[in-house]
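Q: Can someone sanity-check these two? First one:
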Amino acid sequence: MSNISTTYYPQSGSLVILGAGESGVGTAILGKEKGYDVFVSDKGLIADHYKQQLKAEGIAFEEGNHDEARILNAVLVVKSPGIPETVPLVVALKEKGIPVIAEIEFAAQYTTAKLICITGSNGKSTTTMLTYEMLKHGGLNVGLAGNIGKSFALQVARENFDCYVLEISSFMLDDMYHFRADIAVILNITPDHLDRYEHKMENYVDSKFRMIQNQTEKDYFIYCLDDPETIKGLERHHSKGTYLPFTQEQLVELGAYLTANKTMIINTPNNDTFTMRAEELSLQGKHNIYNSMASGLIAKVQELRNQSMKESMGSYVNIPHRLEHVACIGGVNYINDSKATNVNSVWYALESFSTPIVLLLGGVDKGNDYSMLADLVKDKVHAIVCLGKDTAAIHKAFEQDVEIIVNSTSMHDAVVLSSHLAKKGDTVLLSPACASFDWFKNYEDRGDKFKAAVMEL
């Protein structure tokens, strides 16, 4: 059984949902089906298609405001992961002893499906999608949810999957208490979102390790043996499950490793060995070998056939906005990596290419330390085109390492500048290292505008 006990939270009364996005609306529908008196409250404006859904279901909601008296009368509150713990309304709820939990925590009570949960600072969307595609190709009845796809709660209400692949962020984990992952994966931990964690790396690491709380001897914990913060975290956090590490730097008896001749070897308890040459993987680059190792370990634990795994790993096409090939124009490849919203993601992107690079960088800087990129930029990047309003930090970080650094006034301008700076055989790489909301709605909007501008060249 993968579901948590239903006795942890009241099973009737007023259920309040804070935030009416994908997860909030899905939670509202599941809550209504389970007999709660549901009320949805969003301080911003609710998107029209979500309003239509709520109206069709007969669920009460408000937008542009929080009716605090009504909210503080709830027996249970499910909040959007984007709402910080420090918001006065959340503080008031907790002071009253009203449980405030995540959608995943709420919905897990109502399913006996196996829960495969993937977190990490980088690579979690790619690993989640690869795992989902591999399990689906292998014949499993599998759902996809969490930070990606349709709401987990909505699928629990309306679908009947045997297992789910869930992409889990640290913000979700902060509001998960009794939830249990049958298979927990921590890909890596690098500085990100530290403003939500008192600017303490240790707090962020502790949040990621909530992934393994409540695991039993029947469960599996998959993690990167080469990631220093994960290894440090293991000193403080323990799983009762079977540990399956993956590594490119040493050999392991159980887990996944890379041989000297670049062959990936995967061994899990009571299953035959899986082997595949790194060059046969459709996702190339050192970081993608790690992602493939994690997905491969999950697939082996789920007892997929080796041939089926090879077919998936050899043909998988990456998700949009993550090292997405847009076009080759005049011998120049244009790559959309708009999902790279932190420095570490850009490091992974630069590491993936052997061609000279024109790099599109910038946006809303979350206090980035660009020093970790210095060697790769010096080695591979011959021009940087800056995006966004505040470009001073980028100029300061790379003026000694790059021949040309120019500012742009729009995405269209940035792409045109890049096309003039790039030579035949180069790669133009949008990998911003920053949030997008100074010029764009979100990273998807930024990536879409990049693709549109490339196609206009």
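And here is the second, same format, sequence then tokens:
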Amino acid sequence: MNKSQEKPDFEHFQHSDTPNCDAHVVHLDNVRSTQAEILATSKAKQIAEVFGILADPNRLRLLSALASQELCVCDLAALTKMTESAVCHQLRLFKAMRLVNYRREGKNVYYSLVDSYIINLYRSVEEHLEESNL
């Protein structure tokens, strides 16, 4: 893995002076009131899979392109400077997660987002980063 592809170093977050409880007391009222709100393990796994798919800069760029309009594989490849084969591979992952639809028109295949939820999520994170100056 070269320097430009290295993952962020989160080690400094793990060893920072994160405040924690000095007294180990479980507040049963808080636990009981929150218990109904916590994600079920199966739902958390499904959401984690979607976030895993979104954890790639090239995939996010493809989604951002599809947020504006329906595009064919050739257009997506030109926009992202990826090969058509690489774009198709990423689109297969999106399709498996039910994030994109496609339609054929002659020899071309056009892709679009299934709905706006994923793009709203990506835009919300983008806004958060801009506001936080990260």
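A (reply): Looked at the second one. Residues 1-5 have pLDDT under 50 and may be disordered. Helices lie at 11-14, 28-35, 41-54, 57-68, 73-80, 84-96, 117-132.
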